[in-house]
Amino acid sequence: MIEPDNEVFEAELRRLKPARLPAALRARLDQAGAEALGQPVPATEPTTGWQWWWLRLRWLAPAAAVGLAVMLGVTRIHREPSRAAHPPAPAAPALHANEVVIDRTLLTAFDALATLPDGEPVRLRCRHWIESVTLRDSARGIEVEQRVPRLEVVPISFETY
Amino acid sequence: MADGLDQAEWRRWVEAHGPKLLLFARQKARCEADAQDLVQEAVVECWQRSGTSPPPLPLVFATIQRRAIDRARQEDRRARRELAVAADQSQPWFEPDLENRELSQAIQAALAALPTEQREVITLRVWGELTFAEIAQVLGIPANTAASRYRYGLATLRKLTQQVLT
């Protein structure tokens, strides 16, 4: 049995609509749907703006990179002809990460107050996280760790009278 | 697999149910990226298993729940403790229309402050539009427990929201 006050509040909650899916996730789901249903993904080509130019000119970047690589290769061969005669150094064995630890540490959490240009106060809920990924190759005793800081700020408006 | 279903039907289904699935996944995941992965994996798995018709919604919610638990088991104990206390709020959970903008921000902040058990029941009931019997199946708990978690959660949510708004 739900109290009458809660019923009103419940109705108010229902008025809120869950946020639409982010465009990237929608695209991923379309792709996954096409694969799951065994159908080709229909192209959704933008017709205006920078995306239109990007679609038409995106071949330029890889083409330029390939051209540069070929030029550097040719220059190197001409400059160091003796190096080609040496046998290549043996490649280091690949890292076998048999333990992966993904972790997140909350460094600080604090609230800050700010005022918008129209005078409305806004509370900013701030959290500072360190996210880390650690790969361990216990056979070779190697540990590789990457740590990335992340600041999470959620603005919360106040109602003013 | 999935004979008779087409891409347009898939898109319509994703458009209609994707937002509520993502909202639920956000209550279960450590971060936004994990929540989106959970939705994608669960939707694809359920559609592949459902054969000739779209999957029932409680099944998709249950799959998100199962996959979230699997993920949490793969992580260390500390990470799981953090999962219980901190929901990722880097994205808005609700449509920020002008009329309800302040309310939606307050509800998101208050919802994130609730215990996970209450938060997930409220999300499934209010925005997932499931019955208590369906919620019980999704979460693997008795229907009475689901109802009492909802009642307590709703009362706390109301108090927290009022605190934020005043």
Structural commentary:
The complex is a heterodimer of chains A (161) and B (166). With 161 residues, chain A is α+β, with helices and mostly antiparallel strands. Chain A has a domain at 99-157. Chain A contains four helices and three strands; from the N terminus they run H-H-H-H-E-E-E. Chain A has helices spanning 4-15, 23-37, 49-57, 60-79; strands at residues 99-115, 121-137, 142-157. Chain B is an all-alpha fold. Chain B has two domains: 7-88, Orthogonal Bundle (Rna Polymerase Sigma Factor, Chain: A); 95-165, Arc Repressor Mutant, subunit A, CATH 1.10.10. In chain B, 75% of the residues lie in helices and 0% in strands. Chain B has helices spanning 7-28, 32-50, 57-74, 77-85, 101-113, 116-127, 132-139, 143-165. In chain B, helix 2 packs across helix 3. The relative contact order of chain B is 0.12. Chains A and B meet through helix 1, helix 2, strand 1 and strand 3 of A and helix 1, helix 2, helix 4, helix 5 and helix 6 of B.
Write down the overall geometry of chain A: extended
Indicate how many domains the architecture of chain B comprises.
2
Q: From the 3D coordinates, which CATH architecture of the largest domain in chain B would you assign? A: Orthogonal Bundle
CATH top level of the largest domain in chain B? Mainly Alpha
H/E element sequence of chain B: HHHHHHHH
* Tally of DSSP helical segments of chain B: 8
> What does the oligomeric state look like here?
heterodimer
Structural class of chain A: alpha+beta
> Regions of chain B with pLDDT < 50 over 5+ consecutive residues?
none
Mean pLDDT of chain B equals: 84
Give a short account of the largest sheet of chain A. 3 strands, antiparallel
- The end-to-end distance of chain A, rounded to whole angstroms, is 35 Å
Order of helices and strands of chain A: HHHHEEE
Strand residue percentage of chain B: under 5%
Could you tell me the number of beta strands of chain B? 0
Structural class of chain B: mainly alpha
Number of strands of chain A: 3
Question: In order across it, which strands form the biggest sheet of chain A?
Answer: 1-2-3
Task: Work out the helix count of chain A.
Answer: 4
Rounded Rg of chain A: 28 Å
